[in-house]
Design brief:
The complex is a heterodimer. Chain A is α/β, with parallel strands linked by helices. Chain A has helices at 15-28, 43-47, 57-62, 67-70, 91-96, 104-109, 129-137, 149-164, 184-196, 209-212, 214-217, 221-224, 229-246, and strands at residues 2-6, 33-37, 72-73, 79-82, 118-122, 140-145, 172-179, 200-206. Chain A has an 8-stranded mixed sheet, sandwiched between helices. In chain A, β7 (172-179), α9 (184-196) and β8 (200-206) form a beta-alpha-beta unit. Chain B is 55% helix and 14% strand. By secondary structure, chain B is α+β, with helices and mostly antiparallel strands. The relative contact order of chain B is 0.09. Residues 514-518 of chain B have low confidence and may be disordered. In chain B, a hairpin with a 5-residue loop joins β5 (63-67) and β6 (73-77). Classes of the chains: A alpha/beta, B alpha+beta. Chains A and B meet through β3 of A and loops of B.
Chain lengths: 247, 518
């Protein structure tokens, strides 16, 4: 089992769209995949028409609530979802109260190893104990970046956090999301970062109104508009990730 | 994984009627067009071994499917199987399905149990936010008198929604258990699943007159015999004759032990008639048992003796065919029809005719049972004493027969006692019987092989080869028998201390209270 976390300190960069479509792409290949919606907003759950479930963050962290019991099947073969819970917003607080707080998420996911080939974590924006749990649980941390100066700065902040907390930055991958190829800033930023950082993937996902419409038709872009440019980009993104993640 | 739910449509309600009941909480979205009619053949053994273990085996579209109560399912292509039934588990393609079928027994043939022809509709069940919560398959029999069945397979995590679906379906389609569904589909073939059993369950009251009790016993065992006749004469599998013989043996045993139930002349005629049938079933069963040991014997011998063993079993096969031919010919005679008709009618009559009553015929069975059982307990104890320290094989064989008669008697009269009394006695007796049986079986095998060899001698040019193989077998069987005496002696000692004593006789006098069959 491999765990892929889709993360960014900033919100609105396409984390959920990435997590949803990458998970869908993996499942469509026949890989048993679990998408964990760790964001209390529950966007991923909403896209799959699954109501948030009331799972106690405290019980989840302390291991007395089994993750398996909360999992639901989506309408797509091989793809299951751990729905968001409003109580997930309390996760950082709860984690602060327990021992070995940094690996609680990893421990909670461990029982699923026999069932899933891939777990995708759709995380909340921010940098806290919950995020650190995600970093330690994940085999790869995928960071969507909108190609702007501010975004690149934030990326640097995240890498520094990794280094300070003895987290292996080789597990980080970044890619450009919501790209507008007509904008020079986007092009320049992409060229500069890609040229200096091996962790940046070749695939760039273009900005697409169809991605925003996922909230209207409530299914992955790859299920609805497979022939769109953004959908093709997500497929390429998964293909690029697949080799380093699954071998 | 959430368990699937099964529904029976009431009064031939349509799927549209179900749809209306479910709205607005649930919608049915058709998946593809309706298919069929599809023919499905349900398969089980005569004694419902798969059904009794919560499994269903059926053939549809040249594919065999085996399901169990936990939702596990195995499939195997089986083109043309319908035309090859009855068959055995070992005739099925190797794999998980065959293992699942064989685990209930390899000796019983798989038979057609019922046939169904259905049209199939499939739906995705969606909730109020258009999320699929499960998949619904509706099967409508082409025979309109049979109710349509729907099966809901909930998606993972949607068992609560499935329960809500079941409530919403309400009077249009009622939830039934998987066990009830299994029963219904199999019962469509005309036999009640699970009803056939070789377990003895005769309901008697301690106040029942002994003659009436004896007729109830006759009815029970004659019915079992008759139920096995068709399978026996067709030689569908060896167990039809085996069950027939056990029923006959139990009946004969009871008639001989329940002394005074019937008038002497009637008893004599009954015994003679039953013995006539038994005499013809014996050889066929003996040869059946021998044939079943073929692979066991092969494993005991070195390969050089295989050829001789094969010749021997060719001879055995021929004798088996002859024995069955004699038996089935007899079962087609007027004499057999007379025996079964006369005694069946006598057993089923409302009242025992006065002239049929024996000296104890009018006495309550509850007052006679303790003495009968005690007497047989004593016989077995005497037999144990007689064979202690080594005895002729015939004496040990008699002891085994007495032990069986004792067990049959306890089982037949079990309803006269509180529920656990009979079961406890039989359990205590079983340990002794098993040890004796193991020993006696080997002795019988030796005797049979020697007898067969004598018969073959001078009649078969391959005698020398056969004799070498039989000689090897006899050596091995004798060696095994010598190793079992210790276990037998220990079991016999336990019998004396647990069953042979006065405490048991006291228990036997405590039948259930008046007029209260258990």
């Amino acid at each position: 089992m491999k765990t892929l976390a889709v993360y960014n300190l900033k919100g609105g960069v396409g984390k959920t769209a990435t997590a949803v479509n990458v998970a869908y792409a993996a499942a469509a290949e026949g890989r048993q995949t679990l998408l964990c919606d760790l964001d209390a907003q529950g966007a991923a759950s909403y896209y799959f028409r699954i109501r948030p479930k009331s799972v106690s963050a405290k019980k989840l962290v302390k291991g007395s609530s089994r993750v398996e019991e909360a999992i639901k099947a989506t309408d797509h073969e091989n793809l299951h979802l751990l729905p968001a819970s409003l109580s997930f917003r309390k996760l950082p607080v709860v984690l602060n109260d327990v021992k070995h707080s940094r690996r609680r998420l990893r421990d909670a996911l461990a029982p699923l190893a026999g069932e899933y080939e891939l777990i995708v974590l759709d995380t909340h924006a921010g940098l806290d104990l919950e995020s650190e749990n995600v970093f330690r649980a994940a085999d790869m941390v995928l960071i969507p970046l909108i190609p702007t100066t501010l975004s690149v700065n934030t990326y640097g902040t995240m890498l520094e956090f990794f280094s300070r907390h003895d987290l292996d930055t080789d597990r980080v991958r970044a890619f450009f999301s919501m790209v507008d190829g007509r904008r020079r800033m986007h092009r320049d930023t992409m060229a500069e970062l890609a040229g200096s950082d091996d962790r940046v993937l070749e695939t760039a996902v273009p900005y697409s109104a169809e991605v925003e419409k996922m909230g209207t038709y409530r299914e992955p872009l790859l299920a609805r508009h497979r022939s769109s440019r953004a959908a093709a980009a997500y497929l390429d993104l998964w293909a690029e990730l697949r080799t380093s993640l699954l071998g | 994984m959430a368990r699937s739910l099964i529904f029976a449509f009431t009064s031939n309600a349509s799927t549209d009627a179900l749809r209306r009941r479910l709205a607005p909480a649930f919608r049915l979205r058709a998946v593809g067009s309706p298919t069929g009619p599809v023919e499905r053949l349900y398969i089980d053994t005569f004694d419902w071994r798969l059904f009794s273990r919560g499994r269903v085996l059926y053939l549809e579209d040249n594919t065999l499917v085996l399901t169990d109560g936990d939702g596990r399912r195995a499939t195997e292509p089986a083109p043309g199987l319908d035309g090859r039934l009855p068959c055995f588990a070992d005739d099925l393609p190797a794999g998980e399905l065959r293992s699942g079928v064989a685990s209930v027994g390899r000796l019983r043939a798989l038979l057609p149990a019922s046939r169904l022809s259905v049209r199939r509709e499939r739906y995705a069940v969606r909730d109020d936010i258009d999320k699929t919560i499960g998949h619904l398959t509706v099967e409508r029999p082409t025979d309109a008198s049979a109710p349509a069945i729907a099966r809901l397979e909930p998606l993972r995590g949607f068992s609560r929604e499935a329960a809500a679906f079941a409530r919403a379906a309400g009077p249009t389609a009622q939830a039934i258990s998987a066990a009830e569904h299994r029963r219904r589909v199999l019962a469509a073939g005309g036999r009640e699943p699970g009803a056939y059993t070789t377990k003895v369950s005769i309901s008697l009251s301690p106040q029942t007159p002994a003659a009436d009790a004896a007729r109830a016993v006759m009815s029970h065992f004659l019915a079992v015999m008759r139920e096995n006749e068709t399978g026996l004469t067709a030689r569908t599998d060896t167990e039809f004759l085996h069950d027939y013989r056990i029923a006959l043996r139990r009946l004969r045993s009871y008639v001989s032990l329940a002394k005074g139930s019937f008038a002497p002349e009637l008893t004599r005629r009954l015994k003679a008639d039953l013995k006539r049938i038994a005499a013809l079933t014996g050889p066929a069963r003996d040869f059946d048992v021998l044939l079943l040991r073929r692979e066991e014997y092969r494993a005991l011998l070195p390969p050089e003796l295989d050829a001789g063993l094969d010749h021997f079993f060719e001879w055995v096969r021929a004798r088996t065919d002859e024995a069955y031919a004699r038996l089935t010919a007899f079962m087609a005679t007027e004499e057999y029809a007379r025996i079964t008709g006369e005694w069946g009618g006598f057993a089923a009559a409302g009242k025992t005719p006065a002239e049929a009553l024996g000296e104890h015929g009018d006495r309550p069975i509850g007052s006679l049972a303790p003495a009968w059982i005690s007497k047989q307990l004593g016989r077995v104890a005497e037999g144990i004493d007689a064979v202690a320290g080594g005895a002729p094989d015939e004496r040990m064989h008699e002891l085994r027969k007495d032990g069986k008669k004792l067990r049959y008697l306890i089982e037949i009269l079990a309803s006269l006692y509180p529920p656990k009394t009979g079961a406890r006695l039989v359990k205590q007796l079983k340990a002794f019987q098993d040890a004796l049986g193991d020993l006696n079986d080997l002795s019988v095998q030796e005797f049979t092989l020697k007898q067969d060899l004598t018969e073959i001698r001078g009649n078969d040019p391959r005698y020398v080869e056969i004799a070498a193989s039989i000689g090897g077998l006899l050596t091995e069987l004798r060696r095994r028998r010598a190793g079992l005496y210790g276990a037998y002696e220990a079991a016999a000692a336990r019998y004396r201390s647990e069953i042979g004593g006065g405490a048991v006789k006291k228990v036997l006098r405590q039948t259930v209270s008046q007029g209260e069959p258990v």
